[in-house]
Design brief:
Layout (H helix, E strand, L loop, with lengths): L1 H5 L6 H33 L3 H13 L1 H12 L3 H23 L7 H4 L3 H22 L11 H21 L25 H33 L3 H13 L1 H13 L2 H25 L11 H23 L9 H20 L1
Helix pairs in contact: 2-3, 2-9, 2-11, 3-12, 4-5, 4-9, 4-10, 4-12, 5-10, 5-11, 5-12, 5-13, 5-14, 7-8, 7-12, 7-13, 8-12, 9-10, 11-12, 13-14
């Protein structure tokens, strides 16, 4: 049964579409449970919502996406692998703005201001900058991968160390206002043992990996039969579907009042998603994957840097209310993502 699922070229188009949709729904459902687990782990471990949202939730919700990029790279679809990584970051940033529409009290970037979240945004832009250098610079390959690939892992690790330290010993604090939401422990987090929380967290992660693998193989088959480009399949079909946990978690976290978790989960997940490209580069055996991509992926990296730069400006300026209650940064992010979709479709 498993080999038949994992090699979907022998299955009908209807079967591939069905598996794609069922896996996407499964990812969304699992993301709902992850919200409560993340909030409980943040309280029980004392690590804080911003750090747990960024590192543990960000990594776990990224498992379908990283599985998709690695699978595509192993199958020889270089543009699809990178488009999924960058497209996921772009759509998750957009999801945060859509989630902001459900919080009527204030602009989410104002209410969830925290030093760790702003550092996550700065780290993300730095890692995306490294990716852009790898794509437009000299195409070198050491052991079949680009020298910048290990720098992405090192940069991510160093960045998370700084962010963890900023939670324990912040050098400055955002100004508290009547709309600011602070990270406070929840009594409900004491209901379950820490061991049970971690076991459930790991089990959900394993299911997300399985869903990511099925989605990628189904999308490869569907895209090939419909004549879609790798960039479009990776940057939209796979990226949006595998990013559903971020949307679900953001909506659920806002409903539970865990605003720092909502923002930290997206920004941290985005920073982790840059490692999709690094892992895909290692999995892509013909050489450096950055030498095999199209101009669409390069343009999308640049556009994603702008999107997250705008979001970081919003976190720093903390506009309390704006058009549709999302602030100037939210409106600009939505416009920029629309431009990105047009680039993937017609570029």
């Amino acid at each position: 049964m498993l080999p038949a699922i994992f090699h979907l070229t022998d299955q009908s188009t209807a079967m591939n579409i069905g598996l794609f949709l069922v896996s996407g729904v499964g990812i969304a459902i699992l993301g709902t449970r992850l919200t409560g687990l993340g909030d409980a782990l943040a309280d029980r471990t004392g690590l804080g919502e911003a750090f747990v949202g960024a590192v543990f939730l960000g990594a776990c919700t990224s498992l379908p996406g990283i599985t998709a990029s690695v699978t595509a790279a192993l199958d020889g679809f270089a543009s699809m692998a990178i488009a999924n990584a960058i497209g996921g970051i772009a759509v998750q940033t957009t999801f945060l703005i859509l989630a902001d529409l459900t919080y009527p009290k204030a602009n989410l970037e104002h209410a969830a201001a925290s030093v760790p979240n702003m550092l996550q945004g700065a780290l993300l832009i730095t890692l995306l900058g490294l990716l852009l250098v790898a794509m437009v610079g000299p195409q070198l390959a050491i052991f079949s991968f680009h020298p910048i690939t290990p720098l992405l892992f090192i940069g991510y690790g160093m960045g998370q160390h700084l962010i963890r330290r900023s939670h324990a010993h912040p050098m400055w604090q955002p100004r508290m206002t009547s709309s600011t939401n602070t990270d406070q422990p929840d009594k409900e987090s004491q209901r379950y043992t820490l061991q049970r929380l971690w076991c459930e967290f790991i089990a959900i992660g394993a299911l997300l990996v399985l869903a990511g693998l099925i989605i990628t193989r189904a999308a490869e088959t569907i895209g090939g039969r419909m004549g879609l480009t790798e960039s479009l399949v990776g940057g939209l079909m796979i990226a949006i579907t595998t990013s559903l946990p971020e949307l679900v978690i953001s909506l659920a976290a806002i409903r539970q009042g865990a605003l720092t978790l909502a923002v930290g989960g997206v920004l941290g997940g985005n920073a982790f998603d840059t490692l999709f490209a690094a892992v895909a580069d290692i999995a892509y055996r013909p050489g450096s994957i950055y030498a095999a991509i199209s101009d669409r992926e390069i343009t999308m990296v640049a556009l994603t840097i702008v999107m997250n730069g705008v979001l970081l400006l919003g976190l720093l300026s903390r506009e309390r209310r704006g058009p549709a209650n999302i602030g100037f940064e939210g409106a600009l992010v939505l416009v920029l993502y629309g431009i990105g979709v047009l680039i993937l479709r017609y570029g």
